[in-house]
Design goal:
Layout (H helix, E strand, L loop, with lengths): L1 H16 L2 H7 L2 E3 L13 E2 L1 E6 L6 H8 L6 E6 L3 E2 L17 E11 L3 E10 L1 E6 L2 E6 L11 E5 L3 E11 L5 E7 L9 E2 L5 E3 L3
Parallel strand pairs: 1-10
Antiparallel strand pairs: 2-14, 3-4, 3-6, 5-12, 6-11, 6-14, 7-10, 7-12, 8-9, 8-11, 12-13
The structure holds calcium ion.
Calcium ion (CA) binds next to loops.
Length: about 200
């Protein structure tokens, strides 16, 4: 094992020097479709709609399979957005009634204030899959601490509301769910947590 790993390291180093890994992560730009029609402003309520299933999932595949059990779904108070930093041990996850063994199905709208190219960074503990404007933009499967993979790059054709859907699960210990954005023209090291007022939903 040790020998094999040592043999691989120069290969990774060479790929990194060639810019291969950066190119692979940055190449994909997701083109988002605005909600059509745009939601009626009078019907929108703050935050995102969420339903919880209080079952164990170790992967997004398992979490998704539980969604099929409709009678297990329990609507929860709306999320204020993806603004939940890592919990303390024993603290409830999101707006759920439990700190562990929670699956959340989230949907609503996200408002982009201007058109252009945005970068989105998602932090999750544990698994997370996100679609915005009809496009899957991020997935981080499995159980892990509050961490992120490469940012997603999205092309926003017009200011306004975009449908957002997410599948999230928290198995054990702490949990987090955060989205940050870098708006068009902002510096490459400039990240802001997407504010609560950017999220809305139509009550079901
Ligand atoms: Ca966890």
């Amino acid at each position: 094992m040790r020998c094999g790993f040592a043999m691989f390291r120069p290969v990774f180093a060479a790929l990194a020097l060639a810019g291969w890994s950066a190119a692979a992560g940055a190449a994909e730009v997701h083109k988002l479709a605005p909600a059509d029609p745009q939601p009626d402003a009078g019907a929108l309520k703050p935050g995102a709609h969420v339903e919880y299933i209080y079952r164990e999932a170790k992967s997004l595949h398992e979490a998704k399979s539980w969604l099929g059990y409709g009678d297990l779904r329990k609507p929860g108070p709306p999320l204020r957005g993806f603004t939940y930093e890592d919990t303390k041990l024993g603290e409830n996850v999101l707006t759920a009634d439990a700190d562990e063994l929670v699956i959340a199905s989230i949907d609503g709208f996200l408002r982009f204030p201007e058109p252009g190219t945005y970068k989105l960074t998602f932090w999750s503990n544990d698994g997370l899959r996100v679609s915005i404007g009809g496009v899957e933009v991020y997935e981080h499967d499995g159980r892990h601490p509050c961490e992120t993979l490469d940012p997603a790059t999205v092309e926003v054709p017009a200011a306004g509301w975009y449908a957002v859907e997410a599948l999230f699960f928290q198995r054990l210990s702490t949990a987090c769910l955060v989205m940050e954005w870098q708006k068009p023209g902002e510096a490459a090291d400039s990240w802001t947590v997407v504010p609560a007022e950017a999220y809305a939903h139509v009550p079901k």
